[in-house]
Design brief:
Chain A has 165 residues and is mainly α. Chain A is built from two helices and no strands. Chain B is an alpha+beta fold and 180 residues long. Helices cover 61% and strands 14% of the residues of chain B. Chain B contains eight helices and four strands, in the order H-H-H-H-H-H-E-H-E-E-E-H. Chain B has a four-stranded mixed β-sheet with strand order 2-1-3-4. In chain B, helix 1 crosses helix 6, helix 2 packs antiparallel against helix 6 and helix 4 packs antiparallel against helix 5. The longest helix of chain B has 17 residues. In chain B, 31% of the residues are buried. Classes of the chains: A mainly alpha (165), B alpha+beta (180).
């Protein structure tokens, strides 16, 4: 009796176990497996999305790199142009300074020339006539007497005698 | 005297000298110039000669009186008549000057003014005359003048030639060099 009970218990335990396994299988097959499949699909989709996103990000990174390169080239170009502009500006400033110096030098020289001219004009218009008048007066006095005048005449006559034949 | 009148006067003078050269010598042409100078120094004579209201006979008579006073040859009388006939009697002074100049040119004579600051001796003047004759190749006639402005020395000047050695000139040259 005890043996039967044990067998029956075992059979029922087997049956219970089988029922539990079956129920578990059923549950697993009908619910868990779908859920897992859905989860896997979701994960796959997520993975695909991530992959797409990664690709987009990569493309974006590439695009940004290209933009950065372009910007870098643009700024390099700008920097070169600015440097060139600075050089030109410096050259113009130096040129203006040189021209200013030349102008100042020219003006100084003009002043010097003008001063020389005025001095010369003063000498020509005032000093020379005064000196000439004074010398004329003195020479007239020197040659006032006949003897002094005769010396000059004799000199002329000697010259003419030499050159008359 | 304008250029046209001068040319016409010169032609009259040349014609007269071509025709009556025998009536002219240096003394006569000098008298011609003296008469021309007289006419020049009395401009009112020229004024009357140009006056058309005055009869040509009156002009001729006046000029004939002058030509007799200056003891000019008969050719001048003829010249006055020709000029009167040609209504160019106002050219008389120019023609007389032209006669003098043309005569000197024909006979290779140059007239010089010998200007000196002091009186020159006759021998000095002769040396100057010979000097000028030698250097110009022409006969030299001259008039002497004293000009104290020269200070000392001489200036020999003709119509086209100037020879000068004077203290005033030397002074002027020195002053011009200094002024430059």
């Amino acid at each position: 009796m005890i043996l039967n009970e044990q067998v029956i218990g075992s059979v029922f335990r087997i049956l219970n176990t089988a029922a539990i396994v079956g129920a578990l299988w059923y549950i697993f097959k009908n619910y868990v497996l779908d859920m897992i499949t859905q989860l896997m699909r979701a994960k796959q989709r997520e993975l695909a999305d991530l992959s797409d996103h990664a690709r987009l990000v990569t493309e974006r990174v590439t695009s940004l790199s290209a933009e950065i390169n372009q910007d870098q080239q643009f700024f390099d170009g700008m920097r070169d142009r600015i440097e060139q502009w600075q050089r030109v500006a410096q050259h113009q400033v130096m040129h203006r300074q040189r021209e200013q110096l030349l102008r100042e030098q020219y003006v100084r020289e003009q002043y010097v020339r003008r001063a020389d001219h005025l001095k010369s004009l003063h000498v020509t218009r005032q000093v020379v006539p005064q000196v000439a008048a004074s010398m004329y007066q003195q020479l007239s006095e020197v040659f006032a007497n006949e003897q002094s005048g005769k010396k000059i005449i004799d000199k002329v006559v000697v010259f003419m005698k030499v050159h008359r034949s | 005297m304008n250029r046209e009148a001068s040319l016409i006067a010169k032609k009259y003078a040349q014609a007269l000298l071509n025709l009556y050269d025998d009536q002219f010598d240096l003394a006569v042409v000098q008298q011609c110039r003296a008469l021309a100078t007289h006419l020049q120094s009395h401009p009112h004579i020229g004024f009357f000669l140009r006056m058309s209201a005055l009869d040509d006979t009156v002009k001729q008579e006046a000029l004939c009186t002058l030509y007799l006073q200056f003891e000019l040859p008969p050719a001048i009388d003829l010249l006055i008549k020709v000029l009167s006939a040609h209504k160019r009697i106002y050219l008389c002074q120019d023609v007389l000057c032209a006669i003098y100049e043309d005569y000197l040119e024909r006979h290779g004579i140059l007239e010089f003014k010998i200007i000196s600051a002091h009186a020159l001796s006759q021998s000095d003047v002769q040396v100057m005359q010979q000097f000028l004759a030698h250097n110009t190749g022409q006969t030299i006639i001259y008039t002497s003048h004293i000009d104290r402005a020269l200070i000392a020395g001489v200036r020999l000047i003709s119509q086209n030639i100037l020879w000068q050695y004077s203290i005033a000139n030397q002074l002027r040259r020195v002053m011009s060099v200094v002024a430059e």
